[in-house]
Amino acid sequence: MPAADARGNARSGNGARVRVAQFDAARLRRVMDDANRQSNLATVLASPLRCATLSLLSTYPAMSVGDIATLTESTLALTSYHLRRLEAEGLVTIEKSGREHHVRLDVDAFVGMLRTLNRLAAPD
């Protein structure tokens, strides 16, 4: 967000001065909310293992934690840790079935994540 000087002026991305009062408060709130979501998603996607897991789950509807660990050449403990991070962001659901845990991609949340990242790449 542009910093305002003593007269209430700010510089836009192209260097033009704009009055701070010209900012639409609701739009600014949406921009800041998007920025927070984008930052959280960037943190989640910073892990190659989490990205690989999302790729696997976008291809296969449900997988066991053991299968994900095997295919990503990771340990069960590390895979479980990363799955909990994805679950905390709402990108996957983990269901216990007997001794196994099955992981599913939350397609709506995944599409929402892609839309959020798209707004970062191509803002209004």
Topology at a glance:
Elements: E1 9-11, E2 17-19, H1 25-45, H2 48-59, E3 62-64, H3 65-71, H4 76-88, E4 92-97, E5 100-105, H5 107-121
Antiparallel strand pairs: 1-2, 3-5, 4-5
Structural write-up:
- This protein is of the alpha+beta class and 124 residues long.
- The chain has a single domain (32-121), classed as Orthogonal Bundle (Arc Repressor Mutant, subunit A), CATH 1.10.10.
- 55% of the residues lie in helices and 17% in strands.
- The mean pLDDT is 83.
- It comes from Tahibacter soli.
- Pfam families: HTH_5.
- This is Helix-turn-helix domain-containing protein.
- Residues 32-124 form the HTH arsR-type domain.
As for the CATH topology, it is Arc Repressor Mutant, subunit A
Topology, number of strands: 5
Multimerization status: single chain
Beta-strand residue percentage:
15-25%
The number of distinct helices, counting runs of at least 4 residues, comes to 5
Query: What distance separates the N and C termini?
Result: 15 Å
Keywords:
single chain; 124 residues; DNA binding; Arc Repressor Mutant, subunit A; two-stranded antiparallel sheet; alpha+beta; WH-like_DNA-bd_sf; three-stranded antiparallel sheet
